[in-house]
């Protein structure tokens, strides 16, 4: 592909995709067909152009969603519209796994091969697909399938996601019938998971193009006629997504043929084995409220915390959060009150609040379940956080592979705005705050806070060197408080119960409730809420872990393995640290003795090699060397493996010491723990 403006023209559809985001071009400089007199005297550039750079990622999404890939002509047109150099835009487009810059079929089937799915038979699913559809990456029948890192659906492993490019559901057609309130998102507690018999044509509810399950059996044509026969042939292909989990090759072939007809996903609350039980705090509403209803949220304590925040004032909110001892749940365990205070006290304006919902750590799915089961809780929490740090704008950076969370959160934001819970004068208190969702596009590294800022700003998602820290110079170079979803929703019980009552939960250094993502070889995988201080054994008893456990991975790929005889480790920041391991993002992945550990380690290494942004040498080279060495010893033990294990230690130490960001610094942790703690290769 040429890296300068070329002669390639966008197709009408590509143009329409970009224009649907940016509006029609107003000058020939922007790609309008006709040159006007003013075009000869005036060109967009400088500051005005820089201010639109952050629309690059949404623009790439718009093209990719509609066409399925990003052609030279489409990229060229988007670059003209945004005055972005095509070489830079190409660098951004190729950074993300969800985008393609070469032609590919409109339907892409992502099949998770990460740890939880591997322990639940993803290899057999891939083998079945190879038989039916050909090798991964080869196109057949308008579909291409490819292995994928963790899709954040680990409780229903093995998991897969189909994305069909096409016209957005709300463009050029009569409105879809509204979803019955909470019809599919609300749980029937104790209800069975819907199953889709192999070979059957699913007769379940139809799904609107954006994936919403609708009450009518078939989507409508532009004229409101049922789609079928000739009308169906004339209808444009619609954007659609389908989540298939647990996946079988047969179900995936069916979903791949017609994603819009795939059965609706089970309600989010089925991922919460404790749903509906008394004593829950963070998960108390999941499965209880209708996630589509602001009124239902309000009827279940919703927006009480925001009212208290207005009573306390910004400084009072920060004091409560500090006194409560809240510590970030995104992995770095930084005290939230300190972060907020540091942001609030910056004299520079404007301030931003960013919610990190990128959730790409293999084995992590708690944020998805919260966002799908209780979306207004996150919107309320972000509003309180924005108020505390003096931000009038919030960005919610959402993992690109979470279609249902996107739909629910966008709906919640729209409703909150319409009802005065977001906007220029929230609840008549004179506080202005609004939230914009930005979709990630398949890059684990964008969960690192500064990489996330670059991603929103329209650059490659590469971490920045720190200092300066985000509280001084974050998003768009302004003071920014960036927090994980789970961290933010803890603010609700803090304000509702008061700091002292909250701090009484857990231990002195790890206060409050904690969400754990339990997956792998357990009887009841899912999200569990426990007070900090419960032991690993207590958690695994709830999840019905088997006697045949071989290893437990704590903290995800960036975490470490522990042995089944270490179940008395307290699940606290200090307890796991003392035990030489980490809580990380709350992953607890159980592997039994049937799982080939060396192959799992190769998968971990492959993940880091793939996800390294390549910016610094220790990580870029080290992750490759690590994977090579693990491949070499996959069937070896003892002396035969010794030389490579020595090499792994050397490479691992270099990555830990000299990498710019947490990805490189932790890329060797799980492998190291498997060697030293589990005695892998002995
Ligand atoms: C490679 C990498 C990936 C990360 N991914 C996430 C993520 O998906 N979600 C998240 O909240 N934090 C993630 N983090 C941690 C963030 O950089 C940051 O510490 C966190 O979002 C701060 O929020 P908290 O203080 O509420 O924990 C990641 C860090 C690294 C190094
Ligand atoms: S450590 Fe790895 S992911 Fe992080 S900046 Fe360096 S190359 Fe990129
Ligand atoms: S969805 Fe497959 S490991 Fe998480």
Automatic annotation (TrEMBL):
Q: Where is the composition biased (Low complexity)?
A: 197-211
Q: Per its UniProt record, what InterPro entries does this chain match? A: NADH-UbQ_OxRdtase_51kDa_CS, Nuo51_FMN-bd, Nuo51_FMN-bd_sf, NuoE_N, Nuop51_4Fe4S-bd, Nuop51_4Fe4S-bd_sf, Soluble_ligand-bd, Thioredoxin-like_sf
* Assigned keywords, A-Z: 4Fe-4S, Iron, Iron-sulfur, Metal-binding
PROSITE patterns per the UniProt record, alphabetical: COMPLEX1_51K_2
* Residue span of region Disordered: 168-215
Annotated ranges, domain NADH-ubiquinone oxidoreductase 51kDa subunit iron-sulphur binding:
598-645
Instruction: Tell me the GO molecular function terms.
Output: 4 iron, 4 sulfur cluster binding; FMN binding; metal ion binding; NADH dehydrogenase (ubiquinone) activity
Q: Where is the signal peptide?
A: none
Q: Name one Pfam family in it.
A: 2Fe-2S_thioredx
Protein family (similarity comment): Belongs to the complex I 51 kDa subunit family.
Q: What is this protein called?
A: NADH-quinone oxidoreductase subunit E
């Amino acid at each position: 592909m040429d890296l300068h403006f070329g002669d390639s023209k966008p197709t009408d559809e590509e143009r329409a995709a970009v224009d649907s985001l940016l509006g029609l071009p107003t000058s020939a400089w922007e790609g309008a067909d006709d040159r006007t007199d003013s075009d000869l005297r005036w060109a967009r550039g400088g500051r005005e152009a820089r201010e639109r750079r952050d629309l690059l990622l949404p623009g790439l999404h718009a093209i990719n969603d509609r066409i399925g890939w990003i052609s030279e002509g489409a990229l060229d047109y988007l670059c003209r519209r945004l005055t972005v150099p095509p070489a830079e835009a190409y660098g951004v487009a190729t950074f993300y796994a969800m985008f393609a810059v070469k032609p590919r079929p409109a339907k892409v089937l992502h099949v998770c091969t990460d740890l939880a799915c591997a322990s639940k038979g993803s290899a057999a699913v891939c083998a079945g697909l190879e038989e039916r559809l050909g090798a991964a990456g080869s196109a057949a029948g308008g579909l291409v399938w490819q292995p994928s890192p963790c899709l954040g659906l680990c409780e229903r492993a093995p998991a897969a996601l189909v994305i069909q490019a096409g016209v957005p559901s709300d463009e050029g057609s009569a409105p879809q019938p509204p979803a019955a309130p909470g019809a599919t998102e609300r749980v029937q507690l104790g209800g069975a998971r819907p199953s889709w018999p192999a070979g059957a044509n699913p007769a379940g509810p139809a799904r609107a193009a954006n994936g919403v399950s609708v009450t009518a059996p078939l989507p409508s044509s532009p004229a409101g006629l049922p789609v079928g026969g000739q009308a169906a042939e004339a209808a444009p292909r619609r954007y659609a997504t389908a989540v298939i989990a647990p996946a079988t090759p047969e179900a995936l072939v069916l979903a791949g043929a017609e994603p819009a007809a795939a059965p609706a996903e089970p309600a989010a609350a089925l991922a919460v084995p404790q749903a509906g039980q008394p004593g829950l705090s963070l998960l108390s509403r999941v499965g209880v409220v209708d996630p589509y209803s602001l009124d239902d949220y309000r009827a279940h304590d919703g927006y009480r915390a925001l009212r208290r925040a207005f009573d306390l004032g910004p400084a009072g909110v920060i004091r409560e959060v500090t006194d409560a001892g809240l510590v970030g749940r995104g992995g770095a365990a930084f005290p939230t009150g300190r972060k907020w205070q540091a942001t609030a006290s910056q004299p520079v304006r404007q301030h931003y609040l960013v919610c990190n919902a990128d959730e790409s750590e293999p084995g992590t799915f708690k944020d998805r379940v919260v966002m799908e089961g209780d979306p207004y809780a996150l919107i309320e929490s972000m509003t309180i956080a924005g108020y505390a740090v003096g931000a009038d704008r919030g960005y919610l950076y959402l993992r690109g592979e979470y279609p249902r969370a996107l739909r629910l959160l966008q709906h919640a934001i729209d409703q909150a705005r319409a009802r005065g819970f977001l906007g220029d004068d929230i609840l008549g208190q004179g506080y202005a705050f609004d939230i914009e969702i930005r979709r990630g596009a398949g890059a684990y590294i964008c969960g690192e806070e500064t990489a996330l800022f670059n991603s929103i700003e329209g650059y490659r998602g590469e971490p920045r060197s720190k200092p300066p820290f985000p509280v001084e110079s974050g998003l768009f170079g302004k003071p920014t408080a960036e927090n994980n979803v789970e961290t933010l929703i803890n603010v609700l019980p803090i304000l509702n119960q008061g700091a002292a009552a909250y701090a009484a939960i857990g231990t002195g250094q790890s206060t409050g409730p904690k969400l754990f993502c339990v997956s792998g070889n357990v009887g009841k995988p899912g999200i569990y809420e426990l007070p900090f201080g419960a032991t690993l054994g207590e958690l695994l008893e709830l999840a019905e872990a088997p006697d045949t456990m071989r290893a437990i991975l704590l903290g995800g790929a960036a975490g470490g393995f522990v042995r089944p005889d270490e179940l008395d480790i307290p699940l606290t920041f200090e307890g796991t640290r003392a035990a030489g391991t980490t809580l990380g993002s709350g992953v607890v992945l159980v592997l039994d003795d049937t799982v080939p550990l060396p192959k799992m380690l190769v998968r971990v290494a492959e993940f880091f090699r793939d996800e390294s942004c390549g910016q610094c040498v220790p990580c870029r080279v080290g992750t490759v060397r690590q994977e090579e060495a693990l491949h070499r010893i996959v069937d070896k033990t003892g002396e035969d493996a010794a030389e490579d294990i020595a090499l792994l230690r050397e490479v691992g130490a270099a990555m830990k010491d000299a990498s710019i960001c947490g990805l490189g610094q932790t890329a060797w942790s799980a492998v190291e723990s498997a060697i030293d703690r589990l005695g892998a290769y002995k």
